[in-house]
Specification:
Elements lengths: L8 E2 L13 E4 L2 E6 L6 E4 L11 E4 L4 E4 L2 E2 L2 E2 L3 E4 L4 E3 L11 E4 L4 E4 L13 E4 L4 E3 L11 E4 L4 E4 L2 E2 L2 E2 L3 E4 L4 E3 L10 E5 L4 E5 L5 E4 L4 E3 L11 E4 L4 E4 L8 E4 L4 E3 L11 E4 L3 E5 L14 E5 L20 E3 L2 E3 L2 H4 L4
Parallel strand pairs: 1-2
Antiparallel strand pairs: 2-3, 3-33, 4-31, 5-6, 6-9, 7-8, 9-10, 11-12, 12-13, 13-14, 15-16, 16-19, 17-18, 19-20, 21-22, 22-23, 23-24, 25-26, 26-27, 27-28, 29-30, 30-31, 32-33
Length: 344
């Protein structure tokens, strides 16, 4: 398929600092095309996890993600997997296998807390800290529970909600890197909810409802309701730029939060419940969970969210014959001329 160019065609292996509409150039093994056209946000398939699982916890970013615990067909897991933006590899095992736990932090400084065996009355209060290679014991949360949410960092973490013997909990606890202390209770007790943000600006959403709750480091207040009530949803981002994804048994919709209200985002490629999420609103990661057939249909698939003009890797484009990105350069979008224009 020929490519017709109205602008400059540059094969000089250098970057166009101020591209004009229609310019095509080659730089460091990639073709770029200058255009003022915007590209919609979308989910793209990422690398599959080593184990199909649900009810795991996640931390980190889209290019340095961490997934720990969860459950497969045989029960709770101690597995940890690390994502490099393309593929998953094995990390250090948790000290205690568990599912329905919460997580936060980064790939090299992760935190997980709570969880259980999947049977009421066997909820845990254990906390573990990850250093990029191995887990070590941290301070226990005061209230044992599973199906809770978490956010923040390893040295300033937040956990909220959850269940004990199947009953919803409103408890919030704050971590200082050593021990947990009581925070303000959720005004709407919830389990199987999503959480993101920081200990001083936390966000909790869903959990058998369309409720959104915002934390200021002391107390929770009402935020804008989700467009669609859900439970078992994953979350990413911050209090002012949050992302809610999936939920229930096979929910595929995602929603974007601006600090006041939610709006519709692009649908997941695969609807999933009890999945895990991390990253930001514009570059998120969603992994695992189960599909419409229920927990017996767990998935190991991973999806990456790219907002307008986010990076797009050519190996996920069937028309690609060389590496390519979508990025922002000056006021124009840049994308791989071979792959995104359909050249084969």
């Amino acid at each position: 398929m020929p490519i017709y160019v109205n602008g400059t065609l540059n094969f000089g292996d250098n970057t166009e600092a101020t591209p004009a509409e229609g310019d095509i150039w080659y730089d460091d093994g990639k073709f770029y095309f200058g255009t003022s056209q915007t590209f919609p946000s979308a989910w793209f398939a990422g690398g599959n996890m080593g184990t199909a699982k649900w009810r795991a916890a996640a931390a980190g970013t889209q290019v340095a993600g961490l997934c720990m615990g969860g459950a497969d067909g045989s029960g709770s897991l101690e597995d940890t997997e690390e994502y490099d933006g393309t593929s998953w590899s094995g990390g250090g095992d948790l000290i205690t296998d568990r599912q329905a736990l919460a997580g936060c932090g980064t790939q090299s400084a992760g935190l997980c807390m709570g969880g259980g065996t999947g049977t009421g009355g066997q909820e845990m209060n254990d906390t573990e800290e990850y250093d990029g290679s191995a887990w070590s014991s941290g301070g226990d949360i005061a209230t044992a529970r599973d199906l809770l949410a978490g956010c923040g960092s390893q040295s300033a973490g937040l956990c909220m909600g959850g269940a004990w013997y199947g009953m919803n909990r409103a408890h919030t606890e704050e971590y200082d890197g050593t021990s947990w202390s009581a925070g303000g209770w959720l005004y709407n007790a919830a389990k199987a909810l999503g959480g993101c943000g920081t200990v001083l600006a936390g966000l909790a959403m869903g959990g058998e409802a369309d409720v959104t709750q915002e934390y200021d480091g002391t107390s929770w207040s009402t935020g804008g309701n989700l467009l669609s009530g859900r439970e078992g949803n994953a979350a990413a981002g911050t209090q002012s730029a949050g992302l809610c994804m999936g939920g229930t048994s096979d929910e595929s919709s995602t929603e974007l939060y601006n600090g006041t209200s939610w709006s519709a985002g692009s649908d997941l490629l695969i609807g999933r419940g009890s999945s895990s999420g991390c990253g930001s609103q514009s570059t998120a990661l969603c992994m695992g969970g189960y599909t419409s057939g229920g927990p017996d249909l767990r998935t190991y698939t991973t999806e990456e969210y790219r907002e307008d003009l986010g990076l797009r890797e050519s190996n996920r484009n069937p028309h690609s014959n060389s590496e390519g990105d979508i990025a922002t350069r000056a006021s124009y979008g840049l994308f791989n001329a071979s792959s995104d224009l359909g050249e084969e």
